[in-house]
Amino acid sequence: MLVYILKRAGFNLGVMLVVVTLTFFLMHLLPGDPFMSQRLNPEIKANLYAKHGLDQPVARQYLDYLSALARFDLGESLKYPGRTVNEIIAESFPVSAAVGILALVLALVLGVTLGVLAGVWQSRWPDRLILAFSTLGLSIPNFALGAGLVYLFALKLKIFPVAMLEKPIDLVLPVLTLAAWPAAVITRLIRTEMIEVLKRDYIIAAMVRGLDPARVILRHALPNALPAVIHYSGPLAATLLTGSFIVEKIFALPGLGQYYITSIGNRDYNLVAGITIFYTFVLLVATFLTDLLAFSMNPQLRYRNGS
Amino acid sequence: MGLDMLYPRIVQNRFVLACLFLILLYILISLGGSFLLPHHPNAQSLAEANRGPSFANWLGTDYLGRDLLARILAGVRVSLIIAFFATLINITVGFLVGSAAGLIGGVVDRFLTGLIDIFWCIPPFLVVVMLTVVLEPGIKNIFIALGAVFWVPTARIIRGEAYQLRNAPFIRLARLQGAGYSRIILLHILPCCFPVLLTTAIFSIPDAILAEAFLSIVGLGVTAPQASLGVLISDGLQSFRVYPWQWFFPVLTLIVLVLCFNLLGDMLHRSFRDRSKGILEYD
Amino acid sequence: MKFNNKVIIFILGILFLVFIAACSTSPAPPAAPEQVIRYNIGAEPATLDPALSSGMVEQTVANALLEGLVRLDKDGHPSPGVAESWEISPDGKTYTFKLRECFWSNGEPLTADDFVYSWLRLLSPETASPYAYQLFYLVNGREYYAGEVKDPASVGVRAEGKDRLVVNLKAPVPYFLALTAFPALFPVPESMVSRDPEGWTLAPGKFAGNGPFKLAAWEHNKQIILEKNEHYWDRENVRLEKLVITLVSDSHTELAMFENDQIDIAETPPYREIERLAQSGQLKVSPDLSNEYYMFNTKVKPFNQVLVRKALSLAIDREALVTNLTKGGERAAYAFVPPGVEGPAPGHDYRSLGEKLIEGFNPAEAKRLLAEAGYPEGRGFPVIELLLDDNQNHKAVAEAITGMWREHLGIESKIVEQEYRVYLNTMFARDYQVARVGWIADYNDPMTFLDMWVTGNDNNLADWENAEYDRLIGSAAGSGDRAARSELMFEAEKILMDELPVVPIYYYTNPYLEKERVKGVIHPSFAILAEFKWAYVE
Fold first, then answer.
1. Does the pLDDT value for residue C436 go beyond 80?
2. Distance from CA of C390 to the nearest CA of B (A)
3. Listed residue (C328, C226, C238) closest to C287, CA to CA
4. Which residue, A208, A233, C203, C425, is most buried by CB atoms nearer than 10 A?
5. Residues C142, C145, C148, CA angle at the centre, nearest 5°?
6. Is A39–C459 a contact, with Cβ atoms under 8 angstroms apart?
7. Total structural domains in chain C?
8. Chain C residues with CB-CB distance to B242 below 8 A
9. What is the CATH number of the domain that holds C461?
10. Are residues C520 and C444 in the same domain?
11. Which structural domain, as residue segments, surrounds residue A215?
12. How sure is the predictor about B278, in pLDDT bands with cuts at 50, 70 and 90?
């Protein structure tokens, strides 16, 4: 087990190195630079370049970046003087993570519950209803859902505030917006798996023997339907935890998600690279944890995932 | 391996039939729309800007007085073109990388799997946004950028399939008879993976439509005066409380379009899943 | 390592309960205290250090926290700030400021030495301030910045005792007094800055200011909270106790918050909602010193021909644009410098010298000129490539204008939308034919719109050359007499509008939303978005 973890950690480090390199050079390839302004003054620009070491050759900047990275230093933001990338991530990640965890839990609870119900009542009206809702959930983009929720609940019914994060209740609309899509995916995943599992001999046998159907479904069928969801929830957790650009913009949440787009627009090289590294890190950790979870639930998987 | 087996299933399910019909209708109208309608999608008249739905303009007009219905149909076409080519790149690259990795195995597999894993770990929209900035927004570059990230999960799935097929008797036989990898991939793996590929492709179309809409909202959509559904939605979003139809109709179109593809994909997925049992249980 | 499914279900259950509990916490009472204004500024400031920032958002907050030698009043005229009085030498080159006795918000005294320190810091190449050029007017200012002069004592700013500041300029600059109200020229506290040169504005504990408000909190991407500064010299006239500056960037979210009473002032109402907001009486509009123009690359055929540029200008129906499309109170522009810029005398509008320097919409004349240029009915005219940044409002205007060119001149165009920095890059590389540009005044003088069109200027992206224009602008820049230099600049502007390397489209205004109970907030026409010193709630 330890060897496996070490091997995997080593591989993941390699992945991160490649990701860093790709992002770094792709960013420097983008036309335009961080200190570009409509009021161009060559002397001033040269000074700003020198101040941030951008006058060095790119290869040199890359090496400097890597050596700082080895000390877990993601560098200074170019757009926000005096703030380091580490600080920016440390400030904004908790907000995104709070919304993301709630959305993840909501999506899992809703998805698993609805999926099981739909699977059990396959092809009858609850199933059709749930299926219809989940397909709709897959088809409504979050920018439409978010705008619709704000319009209905905040402006018309005035149940929730429009935006800004001050009280826990402010989280309801963003969490709903964020959870709708994954909940729909999970519902469909679980439903398909449940239908499969419920056809198996041992379930039919258990039913025939007169065991409580609810018990059979929860104790025997559901655990066999879960691995698919567990595998899906690794990358999902990473995406949700690191924030969504659209949701954070609509609801004015001070999270990490909005930096993805704005930092590229600002050509804030360090911030873009830092966020990418952080995302990759979260993704790798989340995948690793869900794999462990899947392992412990199903010994058969232990060998298949060994490489 | 023909599609004939699908036929009864489609006819059986009226819902799916309706979806297929709608999709074909969308494609036909959006391709021939400019001939059918009295309005050109780019014909503007500032004096008639922001009119609500009327007999002359069924879905109203936009901020430059252009007919919204004509704009939406042209937008559907652009969105479909982007989605189609992004999907084409997705399944082509995904299939080639995945099947090569699964079939050849060894160093090639490790290299390609590593590649897939690395791409898996980069935030996809970051790549898409950076690529569209580098390449400049436009239909071609948007589908290239989308294709550049969409192939990754496909390659993963196909690799799994090809890996399982690697030792199937008919593939062993072909190899004994001296068939090269490319021949095996095209003649044997491709037909076996066809159901998976088709399902992936159908699901990738709505994904691409949504991704394109996201790009438009971020400001990286196709360039004016062309408009995709995403551009129309993001334009409509600017005024969705004053002229709600400018937002509502494009959104509705998008949702219906995506819904149709999702339902079609569902149906395919289910029918292939039931059928595939007999094929894959070979050992 | 074995996980029981019960455990998982248990954990999920607990998390669900936590979620429910978190959601059902009762909301805090909304009771708003008396003198508080909630103002949405629309973006996270990059920094609050006046020397390191270059945007209006940053400068607006800096203006509430700090104060220069003078402060502009509601009419834009300099009123005493840290300087209680000043003298200007007859040649207009020497300014002597008498400073009042005043303090930083941490209680330390503020003296003339603080200004010398701050201005030299602005000019120091190590600071790399984007606005360093605002002090290039000083004797040896530019030379010090370029490193040609090392001795700070030779730069034209010095303290005479604690309360006298003497400034020496290279040439008379009639707007220099007003310029000292510009955030880049604010004093900064050396004791705080030296501890954390770039981060000193980031937290209340690190910060000290001399303005009407002090920093109470900065929660990034959410809000900045300012409170009344008890050490401010004019605290009797500051009635506002607290200013909450929210940093919501989405204009629709901002509008919804305004309508939901979560904010009192919304700085950037959504463009297309403006008509509705104006009709319902909620919209307020203040003047703005900025314009929108289309610039030609005058080195590229066929835009090197004046006739072609004139024809394209005549085919634009500016009135239709502002009445049917933009609707934000913009005014059709028939000259380059917007109205509201100070001209022959203080308080005397430069535009009063002449409003209309180009002819308005005239498609027949446009056609004639185009034919004369060799393109009858647009035949043989290449497809115009029109460069834009990725702003939806600019796109709408561009679509309308290219539509007019197609309709009246038979010329097709292709709109090239580029992400903002790519767009700047393309323009600076001269890799464009026609580009949409907007310009905002740096200071209240026509020169801020005119000096960039001088041959070889870094911002003359049209690459336009005219010796007579250069001469007129040169003599205006060397003259200290307001009336005379206004005349010279007006003559120069006539040449600019005659040759049309840039075609003005319209002058902007500044639309905003403000609750009726909010009083005394000034919305200046340039440099900063809102001035809160005299603000209060009724």
1. yes
2. 6
3. C328
4. A233
5. 85
6. yes
7. 2
8. 272-273, 275-276
9. 3.10.105.10
10. no
11. 93-253
12. very low
Residues C189 and C336 in one domain: no
Residue B118 to residue A15, Cβ atoms within 8 A: yes
d(CA C62, CA C58): 6
Q: How many residues does chain C have?
A: 538
Nearest CA-CA partner of C527 in C253, C341, C258:
C341
- Say if residue C520 is in the same domain as residue C502: no
Which residues of chain A neighbour C22 with C-beta distances below 8 Å? 102, 168, 171
Q: Which of C125, C130, C247 is closest, CB to CB, to A37? A: C130
Look up the domain containing C65 and give its range: 37-248+515-537
Residue A211 lies in a domain: yes
The secondary element (H helix, E strand) that includes residue C224 is: strand C223-228
User: B 99-128 residues with CB below 8 A of A?
Assistant: 114, 117-118, 120-123, 125-126
The pLDDT tens digits for B133-185 are: 888 778 898 999 999 999 999 999 999 888 888 888 888 888 888 888 888 88
Number of independent structural domains in chain A:
1
The residue assigned the tokens 């309360």 is: C163
- Tens digit of each residue's pLDDT (9 = 90 or more) over A74-114: 999 998 988 999 999 999 999 999 999 999 999 999 999 99
Which residue in this structure is represented by tokens 């200013």? C243
Which region holds residue C460: left if phi is over 0, alpha if psi is between -120 and 50, else beta? beta
Task: Give residue C207's pLDDT band: very low, low, confident or very high (50, 70, 90).
Answer: very high
**B232 contact C CB<8A:** no
Q: Is C91 inside any structural domain?
A: yes
Token pair in block for residue B98: 């995945």
Token reading at C342: 């100070």
Distance in angstroms (rounded) separating the CA atoms of residues C385 and A213: 70
CA distance to partner chain A, nearest, from residue B14 (Å): 14
pLDDT band at B281 (very low <50, low <70, confident <90, very high): very low
Residues of B in contact with A18 (CB under 8 A): 118
Domain for residue C366, yes or no?
Answer: yes
Q: Quick one: closest CA in B to C275, which residue?
A: B242
And the tokens for C58?
A: 């940053």
Please name the residue ranges forming H helices in C331-481. Answer: 363-372, 392-409, 420-428, 447-450, 467-478
Residues C525, C386 share a domain: no
Q: C49 with C206: CB under 8 angstroms? A: no
My answer on whether C505 and C527 are in the same domain is no
Domains of chain B plus CATH, in order, are 3-42+66-277 (1.10.3720.10)
Please report residues of A whose CB lies closer than 8 A to that of B120.
Answer: 235, 283
Of A255, A257, A275, A256, residue with least CA distance to A170: A255
Residue C83 sits in the same domain as residue C145: yes
Rounded to the nearest integer, the mean pLDDT of chain C is 90
- C155 and C172 both lie in a single domain: yes
Q: Residue C199 maps to which CATH number? A: 3.40.190.10
Choose among A27, A141, A280: nearest Cβ to B122: A280
Q: How many other CB atoms are found less than 10 A from the CB of residue C299? A: 12
Is ipTM strictly over 0.95? no
Q: Is residue C264 part of a domain?
A: no
Both structure tokens of A15: 């992945």
With H, G, I as helix, E, B as strand and everything else as coil, classify residue B249: helix
Question: What would the pLDDT profile of C454-504 be if each residue is shown by its tens digit?
Answer: 998 888 999 999 999 999 999 998 888 889 999 999 999 999 999 999 999
B118 and A261 within 8 Å at the Cβ level: the answer is: no
Q: How far is Cα of residue C348 from the mean position of the Cα atoms in its chain?
A: 22
Supply the CATH number for residue A176's domain: 1.10.3720.10
- Same domain? For C342 and C200 the reply is no
Nearest to A102 among C19, C247, C442 (CB): C19
Question: Chain A closest CA to B177's CA: distance in Å?
Answer: 30
